[in-house]
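Sample A.
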Amino acid sequence: MKKYFVLHPATFKLDGGAMFGIIPKPLWEKKIPSDELNRIHLSLRVMLIQTKNKNILVDTGIGDYHGDKFDDRFAVKGEKHPLLLVLKKNFNLLAEDISDIIITHLHFDHVGGLGEDENNHQEIFPKAKLHIHKKHYEYSLNPTVRDSGSFHSQFFKPLIEKADSEGRVIWHHEDQGVVLEDEGEKISYRVSFGHTPYLLHPYDDKFIYMADLVPTSSHLSIPWVMGYDISPGQTTKDKMAFYEFIANQKLTMIFEHDMKYWGARIQFDGNDVKSIELEKANNQEFQAILQAWPALQSHQ
């Protein structure tokens, strides 16, 4: 039986206008108030899935290799080695205990926890297999000028190359498939394209990790799309396709960046979300792990 935990090792802030694209500030600020620099507060939520033989992470957060100037710009708040601290303090897991890391995409706030810094290329999880979509990786090394700042390839490329040389990178090539399986416990994936090409969304029969396709509950409505998205119109098409799948499969969505809600169940009428049932987080700021919420425990 799989066990699921949603972890909250750190927080950061991004520009509210960029997070909501063409949606006017008087509308989005009712949902998430901004600070004096127009930034909104966001979680860096990571998922831990435990099967009989595996400890699996979905994404690794922002890490702490960036330096003071970067951390101040994005208001990064967290302990040193934030993800390791969560795993040790709450699960008594060491870095060597992580067997697999599913990387949704290679933006800095999703893979920053892979390594120590961008100079010595030291892996934090030396035994973990990395599950990456090959076409997304290829794109990350040659993105457009518009989104190049989101990809710190000088940081992640040496780490991935080292892991690949050791046979620890599992490349995924299709638009959907199986990420991994452990004694009948299967995690599958589907990809979306609007936020970034070949964004990988892991799911099973209970949960689906939305990553930046739907980063917060405030982005559930189909037109509410981030300005960061490389193809916002495609994002709306992706959301409609995913919502139909999610509603049919009765999956619970996991939000990676929502400070207030960790997830939601939805009904979809073919045009937009018909109804929403949100799962509220214990919003104790900067706590290493909020908790394994009862709603998650019930799905063990």
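Sample B.
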Amino acid sequence: MIDLHTHTTASDGTDSPSQLINKALSSGITTLAITDHDTTSGWGEAIAASRAPLSLVLGAEISTLTTEGTSIHILGLLFDGEDVDLQAMLTDTRDTRIPRMRRMIELLAADGIAITMEDVIAATPKGATVGRPHLADALVKNRIVASREEAFVDLLHNESKYYVTHIAPTPESAISQIRKAGGVAVIAHPFASRRGEIISPATFSDLVVAGLNGIEVNHRDHSQNERDQLIEIADQLSLVKTGSSDYHGNGKLNALGENLTDPEEWERLESLANARRVVRK
């Protein structure tokens, strides 16, 4: 069982890296990727907690914006975590999250929704990348909504009047940086229309030129029709097809291992990195 997209308390998950490792082992996951948003800070704990028979894949989900302002997430896997340029890109992306969060809070407060930056910081695990899920948690704690899911449906989705975009690299530059750092790049949930604007099929060709290696086809936010379209695009462009849970712990309904990657597709994807970086003990 291969799950290539999960989150921990290093970003917006509710399980620590070690807790996630334990859950993966008990769930029968054989290969697990930890891909926190714009950070590798959970890698150390995950490596320490990992044990046989689990194979641990280290990565990050990088937030990007097209020149038209469409949000795209790129999964970087198996890259060199010491690469200076890639770490600088992740740091720059994280640094834009604080002013973005302050503006979203201002917009909510202007409509009488009682929330402060202090509330959000209190809801953010120490060292985690601040994001909308932590704002959602603060809204839950303040009894404004009942759950993270409700917060996103009613207030924090990409088309909401309270949504504020952030400065981020283009998907092409993120993909290029991942590849330069020796890793592989997979576009995450590209046709998840309920998250907001999605890219057109034609966009994939430009991403392939930048170095894209794969498409996350099997994801909870893709309908069967969307999956079929993505399979066709992947086959036409010779891209690896992946599947994953996008697990966030208690923060989302996504269950660990609910969508998986075929072992042959994973073997192909791993072979495209410039070194064997899977952690096995």
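B remarks: The chain is about 40% helix and 15% strand. The first helix runs from residue 17 to 27.
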